[in-house]
């Protein structure tokens, strides 16, 4: 029977990114994980609205106008909060001699750059970089796998 593997691929790819970035995978039924995926997918849809595209050009004006771009901003703040909570937990449990993941490596570099007033290694940069890894990695990788499966279905003789 026909089925859409999209959700399975998004969840699998996101979990792999979680293991690299956070050093841990989520259970596929975990409510925080599902909420994170839902927020990212909603933001992908909202980015196509004309309001969001205008917001990218004139954010100071659009900050005061209603529209789907406001929900996108709220979603980004929720994802950022999710990431900041994990970063805070990593700060408490980090062993500098044994980094577990990307966050630990970044936090170690932050510690090395502590005296540098011009450093780009900040908690805000870490949070945004983590968000970028999720958005870029999850969307493109799962979509590429989806098209790969579609091609294999269309041309089964190449398997």
UniProtKB/TrEMBL annotation:
Broadest EC class assigned to this enzyme: oxidoreductase
SUPFAM superfamilies xrefs: Cytochrome P450 (SSF48264)
Entry's localization field: Endoplasmic reticulum membrane; Microsome membrane
InterPro entries given in the database record: Cyt_P450, Cyt_P450_E_grp-I, Cyt_P450_sf, Cytochrome_P450_fam2
Key words of the record: Endoplasmic reticulum, Heme, Iron, Membrane, Metal-binding, Microsome, Monooxygenase, Oxidoreductase
Membrane topology, as annotated: Peripheral membrane protein
Transmembrane segments: none
Main location: endoplasmic reticulum
GO cellular component, one term: endoplasmic reticulum membrane
GO annotation (BP), single: xenobiotic metabolic process
Keyword Heme: yes
Superkingdom, taxonomy of origin: Eukaryota
GO molecular function: arachidonate epoxygenase activity; heme binding; iron ion binding; oxidoreductase activity, acting on paired donors, with incorporation or reduction of molecular oxygen, reduced flavin or flavoprotein as one donor, and incorporation of one atom of oxygen
E.C. number: 1.14.14.1
Cofactor(s) needed for function: heme
Family: Belongs to the cytochrome P450 family.
Protein name: unspecific monooxygenase
Gene: Cyp2h1_1
